[in-house]
Amino acid sequence: QVQLVESGGGLVQPGGSLRLTCTVSGFNPNIFSVGWFRQAPGKDREGVSCISSIDGTPDYADSVKGRFTISEDKATNMVFLQMNNLKDEDAGVYYCAADPLYLRPCEATYYDHWGQGTQVTVSS
């Protein structure tokens, strides 16, 4: 069974940083796509950053480029999202998602397996 578990969310002030962790199990860590998505109240779930386990090439939403960094540790089957210089509009529930296929577009509809999410609150 594919399982994804997020952690690392919390309350942070604007300009602060958080590091989210996603632990993935049930996939061959060498062949899958994984991504971070977020959803604010009343809004669609949007892709934040996705990465292919084949080559590790990341993709970022324009709104987070230069501030967020996705990375993976294949030894522990963990994927991270380092979020710096957080803004009010970054708030929401952050989900990690995975798909057995690689090079998936960073759109929610392409991902079949999801974690339960971790809340990120940005407030002064």
Order of helices and strands: EEEEEEEEEEE
CA-atom Rg in angstroms: 13 Å
Structural class: mainly beta
How much helical structure, as a percent, in the residues?
under 10%
Our count of helices gives: 0
Structural shape: globular
Q: Spans with pLDDT under 50 lasting ≥5 residues?
A: none
What gap, in angstroms, lies between the N and C termini? 40 Å
Overview of this protein structure:
The protein is mainly beta and 124 residues long. Helices cover 0% and strands 48% of the residues. The chain has no helices and 11 strands. The chain has strands at residues 3-7, 10-12, 18-25, 33-39, 46-52, 58-60, 68-73, 78-83, 92-99, 113-114, 118-122. Strands 2, 4, 5, 6, 9, 10 and 11 form a 7-stranded mixed sheet that branches. Strand 5 and strand 6 (58-60) form a beta hairpin. It is globular.
Fold topology:
Elements: E1 3-7, E2 10-12, E3 18-25, E4 33-39, E5 46-52, E6 58-60, E7 68-73, E8 78-83, E9 92-99, E10 113-114, E11 118-122
Parallel strand pairs: 2-11
Antiparallel strand pairs: 1-3, 3-8, 4-5, 4-9, 5-6, 7-8, 9-10, 9-11
At a glance:
The protein is mainly β. The chain has no helices and eleven strands.
Main features:
11 strands; 124 residues; globular; mainly beta; seven-stranded mixed beta sheet
